[in-house]
Structure formats: C-alpha cells, structure tokens
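Page 42, continued from yesterday. The earlier attempt failed because a stray header line got pasted into the input along with the sequence. Redoing it now with the clean sequence only.
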Amino acid sequence: ILFFALLRFIGAFRRIRRREREADDPAPHREERLLLAGLGGALVAYVGQASFNVQQIGLSATFWLLLGVLCALTIGVGVPLTLSPARLVRVGDGARDVVEEGEQSDSARAQTTRPPLREPVDTGVWLAGGFVALFVVVFGWLATGPYRADHTYRDVLVDRNRAGAAQQQNAAAAQTFADRADRELRSAIAANPWEGDYVEAYARSLNDAASRALGSDPTSQDALAMLRKARKQSERALRLQPDNTYYLESHAALLETVQRYDKADTTAKAQERRVLERAVRVNPWQPRFAHDLAGYFANSSEIPAGIRVLERAIVFSPRDTSLLEQLGTFYDHQGETAKARVIWRRLLRVDPKNAAAARALGTNPTTSTSPTASTSPSVSGG
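This time it went through. Structure tokens are written below.
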C-alpha cells in the first residue's frame, strides 16, 4: 500500500510539472507541488521510523492521516481533466458537453509544443519537503523513546534476575549478566532521559558496585569515582522527581556510603539532612522517614532536634512502636525521666511484650505494667 501511494505521489507530481510547462502561468500549481513534496517526505519518514518500532499506535494514526490526505490530493490533481472529481460531479444535460470539452482540451494539450524536459530545480519545494521529512523523523524518534526505553528496561530486569540466580553457581556468568543489565540500563536512559526510575535504578546499581569494591579496598580510586558518579545520577533522578520519597530515601542511603568512604567530601552530611527533612515533609505519615531523620540527629549528637522530629511524627503515627521506643530512649538520654516513663507506658499499652519498655520501667512485659525501676537504654542512630 505504501509503495502504491508513493507511485501515485510521483505520478501526480510529474503531471503537475507537465501542466506547469504547458500553462502560461505556473504559479497556481506551486502550492500543490509544495504540499505534495511535504506529504511525500512525511510518507518516506513514516517508513523510516517504522523500521525502529512498528507498534506505535499514536504515530501510526498520525502518519496514516497524512497518507490519506496524500491519496486524496493525488486523486484530485493527478488524473486527466475528463476524470477529475470536479468534472465527474457535474451531471445532467451538460455532462456530455463537459466530457467533450475535456476531450478537446486534452487533444489540444497534446498538440502543444512542449518545452525541453530538463527544467531548473525548484529548490524551495525540495527544501520544504526535506524539512518536513526531517521534522517527522526526529519527532518519531523522540515519540518512540518511552516505548523503546520500556522494552529495554524489561531486558534489564530479566538480566538482573539471571545474575542473581547465577551468583552462587557461577560468579563469572553472574557478572556478565550484571554488566549487560548496566549497558541496557544506559540504553534505556538514552532513549528516555526524562524517566526518573531508570536514572535512579542506574544510581543504585553504581552504588552497589562501588560499595562492594570499597568493602574490599577502601582506597580504590576507581570505586570512589564510581561512587561519585552514582551520586550525580541520584541527584539527577531527584531533579526529575524532587518529591519522590523512594528517591529521597535511596539518595540518603547513598550519602551515608559517601560519608563512610569518601573522607574528602564535606557536603554529603549536610545534604543528607536536607534530603531526610524533605522526605519527612513530603510524607509525614511514613514513620520510617522520621525514624531515619531522628537517627541522623542522634549520630550528630543533636538529641533535642531528634526529639522534636519524633514528637511531631507520633502525631501522625501514634501506635508505631519504633518511634515510641526511639523517643523514650531520647528522653532518657536527656534526663527527662518523667516524659520517658509516659512514653514507655504508652509503648507497653501498644505492645505489652516490648522488651525495651519493660527494661526501662523494670516490669515484666507479659504480666504487669507498673514500674519498679527505671533504666535508660542507650541512644541508637536508628
């Protein structure tokens, strides 16, 4: 069908050119040639983009629409005058005269002396057609990017599963699958650079590889360079989706790795705090984010700041045992015994078998909730 349409386009274009040579004023046909050139370029571009991916429903509809316009145009201007739609719709007593008039005009045109076949090339028409074709190819390539990236990312998941399955039996095969998954992941990012999931997955992959290498050799410069690259990719994912709490949590974990191995870095600690605070603001109903932020403050010897975070968090999650246990520990560490005992009793009401609350209150967690003594568990960074 496409080949037939292309032949019709070429035939219509040649007939228009012949009419221009035979007519005194070729100007009326310039718009027709321009439109035909553009539609022909779109047709060629459609065939080109179909070689990349033939399953694009939205693009197919657009190009088939252009193809329909092209066919309608070739039918309207590319046939002899006696068969053109404008003449065929005339019916009645004047139909015979119209046909005879068309035959006479065709015979007169055949007797007309034709100019030389070789004529100057109309560069404007071809430039316009080339521009349309280039635009359609670029548009088609960009529009198919998400589909190609999604297909490639499925291959990434398959290769990662294969790498995990082969890890115990064949380490070399597992590494081969892992390397291929990384290459496919980079291809997915190149096809759709605006999808944060691909970028964040690539950052995690780099972080995992760098952490394994640094665990064996903490001074490896190649591993440190990979870790810095992972950080840049994670920051890129956050620029794409700044309020994605999964990205925020993953980036905070990566920053902890940076602080552990890259001693020359002086910005990771402050950035980790901003990332955790943003995660808490975006989703205050997730107690894990508040727990991590409070642990950050504990590791930084900022217990009062951690207490404020936990006091706000238990408003949204009043029955979360990890928050209550952490808050009671912080109160004890600060010497606020009365507040700590209130939190420990509250924790035992939520979880009567909680060993930390029982130790703090000096009770048997399975039989009694009345305190006999008070101890302070050590502050943990979460």
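Notes: DSSP finds 17 helices and no strands in the chain.
Reminder to self: strip header lines before submitting.
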